[in-house]
Amino acid sequence: MAGRSRAETRATQRAERLAELKKQARARERRRNLMVGGVAAAVLVLVGVVFYVVSQGNNVDATAAGQSDYGVTIGPDSAPHKVVVYEDFLCPFCGRLEAATHKQLATLADDGKVQVDYRPFTLLTRSDYSARATSAFGVVLDTSGPTVAKKFHDLLYADQPSETATTFPDAQWLIDKAVEAGADQGAVKAGIEAGENDFAREATQDAQVAGVTGTPTVLVDGKVLANADGQTLLDAVQ
User: Fold this and answer.
1) Which CATH number fits the domain 72-237, given the four candidates 3.40.50.300, 3.40.30.10, 2.40.50.90, 3.30.40.10?
2) What confidence tens digit (pLDDT) does each residue in 56-77 have?
3) Taking the complete model, does pTM exceed 0.85, yes or no?
């Protein structure tokens, strides 16, 4: 329809994607129920349970790298390896993965060897920091573009608070990080001060519907990386 804004178009695309993901999730659930329902003997039940538990960790149906509205991508579409990283800005294991792979993945992306799609969402709810940080990332992405958003992403991990802290960075700290990354303060201030927003809620729903249950969840060329540590990821893309 003529005259639709970019925000309206993106909102429609997100709604359509979420509807499709929900449909796929229901289909997966039906398949799992049929599988479990067909197991009768005690030994087969045990085997089936083990298979189910293992499958849960690998049963992630995510959009391909570069095709999500909830992340930021580095590297070209023509790269031979595609990586998707689902992460939480407060997750210590995500911080370790970022520290171990940040420079190497950036170099490989610059060389055209890998495309990496970083997708933050809210998993940890001990405090509201995860939701606020993810929301702030969405504000920066929307107002300042992917290059600045990626720098903001990197700064949040460089100064990541402890998951067990008693106090967490406030809105002004997030604004300062956004400005340090290259954002205009006037463009991001109100949005970050507002706290949790639709971007964080929708990104979290998108991750949940895709089957993501923990962070970091890493997919390499469409398959979940069994051990999402830095060296395993680098080995997989090199």
Assistant:
1) 3.40.30.10
2) 346 899 999 999 999 999 999 9
3) no
